[in-house]
Amino acid sequence: MNRIDYMAALDRNLMSLPEQERRDALEFYLNYFEDAAESGKTEEQVIEELGSPAHVAAKIMSESSFRAKSAASQQAFKQAGEKKSVFKGVQGTFLAIGAVIIALPGAFIAGAVVISLLIAAVSVLIAVGIIAVVVPLALVVSAVLVFATVPSFGPGALGAGLMLLGGALMSGTLLYLLAALLVRGISALSTWILKKIEDSRAKRRAAK
Amino acid sequence: MASDKFTYELNDFCVMAILSKGESYGYQINQELLEVLDMSESTLYPVLRKLERQGIVQSYSAEHGGRLRRYCRLTPGGLRVFEEAKRQWRALKEWVDNKLGEGSGNEQN
Q1: Domain CATH code at residue B26
Q2: For chain A, which has fewer Cβ within 10 Å, the N-terminal or C-terminal residue?
Q3: Do the domain assignments include residue B1?
Q4: Beta bridge partners of residue B72, listed in sequence order
């Protein structure tokens, strides 16, 4: 591997970073190669010194804020299959919220906002879910009962009930996807808030 | 909030220490770090990025041999942070020296 391969691999591995951040990082490593060459190092020595592009990129990504994280978690979401990562997302959300609350008393407000958002979102989803599934199901059941007692009424009512049930299953799937998105969004939001708090703390320290 | 506990990451502290002696650039900073730290698990660039985001370090491009080179320096606020970190470091160093001194003292007894 030479300098060109190294830079290309780094570039590939930093694909999910925002454009400007990626350019800054690449500039740093290009500078590094140039300065090392000036001091008489070979490209192999520099690569040895820097570590593999994948490792370096992972370090850069983990330091980079919000956007890279959510991109990485989106990828993980796709890879891990939805159910598992929704669960992970929920877990991550609560962990992040907990961390925000522990981090600073001042973060209570932010934490409370996120928690109430989460609770509100979840209760709306549950309520809509119940209405969407239970009501059509009840209709189907009652239609079957009507069919048994008053045969001429039954078929129409049964058809309507089945149609509603179909609609409910479809909207259930949509709700599930919506829930997954919501959980992920809130998780990313709380991670972002945490990062901001950490930064502003350090900034305050630098500014005092 | 002054604390005697050492609250900085060693990488951050060493980079601040290097820059407290004057401006420098990536390659040079890393060469100095490599004299004392194993940088195989961490890498310099994210450390500089973080310090810059926190307002401790400032970077700017300047011409060098017909190309641009990115230089870093401590901001005035960063210098104050480093002063505080230095105070904490001295307390830690005193504690470690003390422990090491006691250790060898016990062996002699």
Answers
A1: 1.10.10.10
A2: C
A3: no
A4: B24, B59
Return d(Cα A81, Cα B25) in angstroms, integer.
44
Count A/B contacts: CB-CB distance under 8 Å: 73
Q: Is B80 on the interface with A (CB under 8 A)?
A: yes
Those residues with Cβ within 8 angstroms of residue A136's Cβ, 6 or more apart along the chain or in another chain: A161, A164, A165, A167, A168
**Are A54 and A9 spatial neighbours (Cβ–Cβ below 8 Å)?**
yes
Question: How confident is the prediction along chain B (109 residues), in pLDDT tens digits per residue?
Answer: 455 789 999 999 999 999 999 999 999 999 999 999 888 778 899 999 999 999 999 999 999 989 999 999 999 999 999 999 999 999 999 999 999 986 555 444 4
Chain center to CA of B90: 14
Provide Rg for chain A, Cα atoms.
Answer: 27
Task: Please state the pTM of the whole predicted model.
Answer: 0.57
Number of domains in chain B: 1
B5 found inside a domain: no
Of the CA atoms within 13 Å of residue A117, those in its CB half-sphere come to 18
Task: Tell if the CB–CB gap between A60 and B46 is shorter than 8 Å.
Answer: yes
ipTM: 0.85
The range of the structural domain enclosing residue B73 comes to: 10-108
User: What does the block give as tokens for A134?
Assistant: 């239970």
